[in-house]
Design brief:
The chain has ten helices and 14 strands. It is of the alpha+beta class. Among the domains are: about 45 residues, no CATH class; about 130 residues, Trna Endonuclease, Chain: A, domain 1 (3-Layer(aba) Sandwich), CATH 3.40.1350. Bound molecules: zinc ion. Zinc ion binds next to loops.
Length: about 290
């Protein structure tokens, strides 16, 4: 048992640094979510509406994220149903081709062959996504899953999943606009996800600060520099990066060198310190900003 524990401690999934993943896991931990069940939407795709509501992401993104979380054994997936899928593209939406009508005599022969094949392989189906035609018997079974929290990981996750809701509420109580998680289209047209985006005036069009949080079991390496790229692309007055527990020496040297991009770095020992640290710095930054205006 103790052996398992030490290997668990050593493995830290980078997925946990995605703010949309954080809010999803928080909902599981709090019991707001128990089981994510698939639902068929109007477009004929299987979606997870509860996850979409919480994560504010597209159907495709959600399915990929849930699968990755299941691979990391953070979530447990269970077969919910099996449906037929197109052997070419995996689409699960079809038109059924009904042969019939009045075939011209020249086509009669091929129609006979067609109906013989159909009786052996099933009806001819055409997938909606890519218009692949195939016989029912050639379709491949596709499993549709439901997902729930892996209870064996609960105590580990509780250590890493932060509860930013009280912070977000406290900042909103100041009359600020707070997006959590925040999705911002950059100048490049690429969409970036930040943990938080804050505007000091509710009706303001501009973003005053974007905040990213990286949590790790060891000093955070230079991969944290990705925030510099994201921050460059997004119009935000101040960019904050909060790391737990600290930056590695290499990463710190690089950040010092690229200071020009205005990224403020905060280091917190544990996840529990994050809220207070952010509240303090954002309040100070707002005071300066609002004085300038
Ligand atoms: Zn297809």
């Amino acid at each position: 048992m103790s052996e398992e524990k030490s290997s668990e401690e050593g493995r830290f999934s980078p997925l946990l640094n995605r703010s949309d993943v954080q809010v999803l896991l928080k909902a599981f931990i709090d019991g707001a979510l128990a089981d994510l069940k698939p639902e068929l939407n109007q477009a004929g795709e299987f979606t997870y509406p509860d996850a979409e509501k919480i994560m504010g992401s597209s159907t495709k993104n959600i399915v990929e994220t849930l699968e990755s979380l299941a691979e990391e054994e953070i979530l447990v997936r269970e077969e919910s149903m099996t449906v037929l899928a197109c052997p070419e593209c995996g689409d699960t939406r079809f038109l059924i081709e009904i042969s019939g009508g009045q075939p011209a005599s020249a086509e009669a022969r091929s129609k006979v062959i067609e109906s013989l094949v159909s009786s052996l392989l099933g009806r001819r189906l055409i997938c909606v996504a890519e218009k692949h035609a195939f016989h029912e018997g050639e379709g491949v079974p596709k499993k549709i899953y439901s997902y729930r929290l892996n209870e064996n990981k609960r105590s580990l996750l509780e250590k890493w999943v932060m509860d930013l809701k009280p912070l977000v509420e406290a900042l909103r109580a100041k009359g600020w606009r707070v997006d959590y998680p925040a999705r911002i289209i950059g100048k490049s047209g690429v969409e970036h996800v930040f943990t938080l985006a804050v505007s000091y005036r509710e009706e303001s069009e501009t973003v005053d600060a974007v905040i990213d949080i990286i949590v790790s079991s060891k000093p955070v390496d230079e991969s944290a520099l990705s925030i510099v790229l994201k921050a460059m692309d997004v119009k935000a007055d101040k960019k904050l990066l909060l790391v737990v527990p600290s930056l590695s020496d290499r990463a710190r040297t690089l950040f010092d060198y690229y200071k020009t991009y205005d990224v403020y770095i905060l280091e917190c020992q544990t996840v529990s310190e994050i809220s207070d640290a952010l509240f303090d710095i954002l309040t100070s930054l707002a005071k300066i900003k609002l004085k300038e205006v």
